[in-house]
Design brief:
The protein has 273 residues and is an alpha+beta fold. The chain has twelve helices and nine strands. The strands form four sheets. Strands 5-6-7 form a three-stranded antiparallel beta sheet. The radius of gyration is 21 Å and the shape is globular.
Length: 273
C-alpha cells in the first residue's frame, strides 16, 4: 500500500518538483540510452535516484512485496525519481549499474564479507572489507545498435557466416523467461540457454522465405555448431554492457586471486554491522 501511494505521488508531480524537494544523485546509464525508443524516459541516458531512507527497510523486507515484484525491481521502483519510469524497460546492464549506484550513494563504498574461505588453500578470514568503486568496472563499449533508439544489434557468426540480429535482455524478456520456465516445468522440462537465445534473436539470414517464429528460431539455435553458440553467448555479454558483478579477493596465505560474486539482495543494501 505504501509503495502504491509513493508511485501515485510521483506521477502527479513533475520531475523538476520532485528533484527540488528530494535529495538525490544523477546516474548515467551504461547503454547511454541509445537502445530505448525516443519517447521512453530512458532514451535520455540518465536517471535520478533518491537516497534510501529508514522507511525503505521495512517496506522492502515485506514478504508480500518480495514475492510480487522481486527485491531489485521493487527497490528501483521506489528510488528512481522519473515519474514515467518503468523498471521492466531497463536493460540488464543498466539495471545492475543503477543498483550499484544506489548502494554506493546511500550506504557508502564499503562492502563487507562476514566470512570467507579460500577455494585454493582453505584459509578462512573474517570481516573482509572491499571498495565497490575500485572493484566494479564499467563494461566496455564494444557494439552499438544498428539504429539509434532501437534495441537491435547485428553480428556475423564465425562458423556458418549467418548474419544475426539480436536484442539485449530487458526486464520484459526476464518476465517472458519466467513464464516460459513455468510452462516447461508443467511438462517436466527446463528452460535452457537455447530457449533464451531463441527469444533474443530477432532475425537470421539463414531463415529465408519463412516466418521467423519462436519455434523456428529454437530449431535454428538447436542446430547451430557449438562455435557459433559460443560466439552468440559472447556477443550477448558484450551488448549487455553489464558492469562486473564480482570483487577480486587475494588470499593473504596462498596469495592466489579469486572472484567473489556480489549478491544484489537485501543484505547488500541493508547490511548488519
Amino acid at each position: 500500500m505504501e509503495n502504491q501511494k509513493e508511485e501515485l505521488r510521483k506521477k502527479t508531480r513533475s520531475l523538476e518538483e520532485i528533484l527540488e524537494s528530494t535529495p538525490h544523485t544523477e546516474v548515467n546509464l551504461p547503454s547511454e540510452g541509445i537502445i530505448y525508443p525516443k519517447d521512453n524516459i530512458l532514451s535520455k541516458g540518465k536517471l535520478h535516484i533518491r537516497y534510501l531512507k529508514g522507511k525503505d527497510e521495512e517496506i522492502l523486507l515485506s514478504p508480500k512485496n518480495l514475492k510480487d515484484t522481486g527485491f531489485a525491481d521493487l527497490l528501483l521502483k521506489r528510488v528512481v525519481l522519473e515519474p514515467d519510469f518503468n523498471v521492466l524497460d531497463l536493460s540488464i546492464g543498466d539495471k545492475m549499474y543503477l543498483l550499484l549506484a544506489s548502494r554506493i550513494s546511500s550506504l557508502g563504498d564499503e562492502y563487507r564479507y562476514k566470512h570467507f574461505e579460500c577455494n585454493f588453500c582453505g584459509h578462512e578470514e573474517e570481516d573482509i572489507k572491499f571498495k565497490i568503486s575500485e572493484s566494479i568496472k564499467d563494461a566496455p563499449k564494444i557494439h552499438d545498435p544498428i539504429q539509434e533508439n532501437k534495441n537491435v544489434f547485428e553480428t556475423t557468426l564465425p562458423m556458418s557466416g549467418d548474419v544475426i540480429k539480436m536484442k539485449t535482455i530487458t526486464g520484459h524478456d526476464m518476465k517472458q523467461f519466467e513464464k516460459k520456465s513455468e510452462s516447461l516445468k508443467r511438462v517436466g522440462q527446463e528452460l535452457t540457454t537455447m530457449n533464451m537465445l531463441s527469444v533474443l534473436i530477432l532475425d537470421t539470414s539463414a531463415i529465408k522465405d519463412e516466418e521467423v517464429s519462436e519455434g523456428r528460431l529454437l530449431k535454428y539455435v538447436d542446430d547451430l555448431i557449438m562455435g557459433d553458440i559460443n560466439a552468440l553467448k559472447k556477443f550477448l555479454r558484450e551488448i549487455r554492457r553489464t558492469p562486473e558483478d564480482t570483487i577480486t579477493y587475494k588470499c593473504p596465505k596462498c596469495e592466489r586471486k579469486q572472484e567473489i560474486p556480489i549478491s544484489f539482495g537485501f543484505d547488500f543494501f541493508f547490511p548488519e554491522y
